[in-house]
């Protein structure tokens, strides 16, 4: 291994981060240099953390430089660990009290309208992501991280899972394409990730490969947290195999489609109308519904086109999708509003359910609402709409009493 290691970012726009350089020495103890605009206020705290991390990894003689741009302790600890592990081999992990552990789990059937992608090596974009209230955040170790930064990003994502408050958002991590992504699992599974996204998934074997690796990690742990899987289908072969992917394991809770890679695989351009991907999107929705998992649509890449996004969301919902990814916080509310049931949709659902209940009470074999006949699948769909509206807080759980009062009036 090299005698010197580096980690972190130090560009003009790299806020809330730091750059760490470390060179092992044969003697002289720890020679630490800290450059920071807040050194007068926090210099002592930064130096204490550095010495604590170095001592933990038994680094006794080294020249260490830290260029700080407002890094929080969990970020700085990750950068130091990454730099150290570039020069020494060790299986130890630095997990002090500052990494308090977010241990909450998430339900299989929770709604996942919006999922905000966050580059896994850019702490400034992670820190306040929760205030935008997405249903989920995705710490991305794949496309959003350059090849030479992937190893240090793993430590940052691990620390972020433990230390950062995402205000109840489901915590997802997109690992790298297999087999490299298996190494990512070692850093995230023990630290209460809620959902693992498997990119460029093309067959059920890849789901089994991930689960086998997770089971091996479980065998080394004292607890077994619930970890869900969301494969991302991004190729023609993946679409052909999407049903077997969707039902490959009990912990698959959704399947997403990645249209940028899919259209590239077809050799066509991606258009606003989406005709080139209609077959694939319909296939994925149908497979997910048949397998009992959530179909999740691709991201809308033009962050400046809000009207285009709104149309895309409505089209996506009409096809049967239950959510989509987003790459900018300004997209979140439009996506959430589009996938949530509207007032007219809720009102229609209430009338369908009440008509069915009334017919059942009277022992009628035929249910109608106005001039339209109502069968069991229609009632089931209406009940799902009501359940979703109640979970979102747009409908009171005692809505039947209100509905009956309105009808009598």
What are the SSEs and their pairings?
Layout: E1 4-8, E2 17-24, E3 30-36, H1 39-56, E4 62-69, H2 73-85, E5 114-119, H3 123-126, E6 136-140, H4 150-163, E7 170-174, H5 181-188, E8 195-198, H6 204-218, E9 228-233, H7 236-240, H8 242-246, E10 254-257, H9 259-266, H10 278-291, E11 294-296, H11 306-319, E12 324-326, H12 332-339, H13 343-361, E13 367-369, E14 372-374, H14 376-392, H15 399-408
Parallel strand pairs: 3-4, 5-6, 5-12, 6-7, 7-8, 8-9, 9-10, 10-11
Antiparallel strand pairs: 1-2, 2-4, 13-14
Fold and architecture overview:
The protein is α/β, with parallel strands linked by helices. The protein folds into three domains: 4-85, 2-Layer Sandwich (Ribosomal Protein S5, domain 2), CATH 3.30.230; 114-339, Alpha-Beta Barrel (TIM Barrel); 343-408, no CATH class. Helices cover 42% and strands 17% of the residues. The chain contains 15 helices and 14 strands. The protein has helices at 39-56, 73-85, 123-126, 150-163, 181-188, 204-218, 236-240, 242-246, 259-266, 278-291, 306-319, 332-339, 343-361, 376-392, 399-408; strands at 4-8, 17-24, 30-36, 62-69, 114-119, 136-140, 170-174, 195-198, 228-233, 254-257, 294-296, 324-326, 367-369, 372-374. The strands form three sheets. The chain has an eight-stranded parallel beta sheet with strand order 11-10-9-8-7-6-5-12. A hairpin with an 8-residue loop joins strand 1 (4-8) and strand 2 (17-24). The longest helix is centred in the last third of the chain and has 19 residues, at 343-361.
């Amino acid at each position: 291994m090299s005698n010197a290691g580096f980690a972190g970012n130090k560009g003009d726009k790299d806020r809330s981060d730091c750059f760490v350089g470390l060179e092992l020495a044969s003697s002289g103890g720890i020679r630490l240099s800290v450059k920071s605009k807040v050194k007068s206020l926090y210099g002592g705290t930064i130096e204490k953390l550095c010495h604590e991390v170095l001592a933990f990894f038994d680094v006794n003689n080294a020249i260490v430089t830290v260029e700080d741009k407002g890094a929080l302790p969990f970020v700085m600890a990750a950068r130091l660990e990454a730099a150290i592990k570039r020069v020494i081999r060790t299986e130890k992990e630095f997990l002090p009290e500052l990494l308090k552990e977010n241990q909450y789990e998430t339900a299989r059937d929770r709604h996942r309208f919006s999922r905000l992608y966050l580059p896994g090596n850019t702490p400034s974009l992670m820190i306040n992501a929760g205030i935008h209230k997405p249903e989920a955040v995705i710490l991305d170790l794949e496309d959003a991280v350059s090849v030479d930064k992937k190893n240090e990003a793993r430590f940052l994502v691990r620390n972020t899972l433990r230390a950062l408050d995402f205000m109840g958002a489901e915590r997802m991590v997109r690992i790298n394409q297999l087999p490299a992504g298996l190494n990512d699992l070692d850093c995230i599974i023990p630290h209460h990730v809620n959902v693992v996204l498997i990119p460029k998934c093309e067959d059920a074997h890849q789901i089994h490969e991930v689960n086998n690796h997770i089971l091996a990690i479980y065998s080394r742990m004292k607890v077994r947290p619930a970890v869900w899987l969301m494969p991302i289908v991004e190729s023609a072969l993946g679409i052909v195999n999407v049903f077997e992917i969707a039902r490959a394991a009990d912990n698959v809770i959704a399947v997403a489609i990645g249209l940028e890679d899919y259209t590239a695989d077809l050799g066509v351009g991606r258009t606003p109308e989406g005709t080139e991907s209609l077959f694939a999107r319909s296939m994925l929705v149908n497979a997910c519904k048949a397998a009992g998992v959530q179909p999740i649509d691709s991201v809308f890449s033009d962050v400046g086109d809000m009207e285009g996004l709104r149309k895309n969301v409505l089209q996506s919902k009409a096809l049967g999708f239950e959510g989509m990814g987003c790459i900018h916080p300004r997209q979140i509310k439009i996506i959430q509003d589009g996938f949530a049931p509207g007032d007219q949709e809720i009102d229609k659902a209430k009338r369908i359910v009440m008509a069915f209940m009334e017919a059942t009470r009277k022992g009628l074999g035929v249910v109608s609402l106005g001039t339209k006949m109502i069968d069991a699948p229609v009632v089931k769909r209406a009940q799902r709409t009501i359940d979703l509206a109640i979970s979102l807080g747009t409908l009171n759980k005692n809505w039947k009493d209100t509905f009956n009062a309105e009808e009598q009036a």
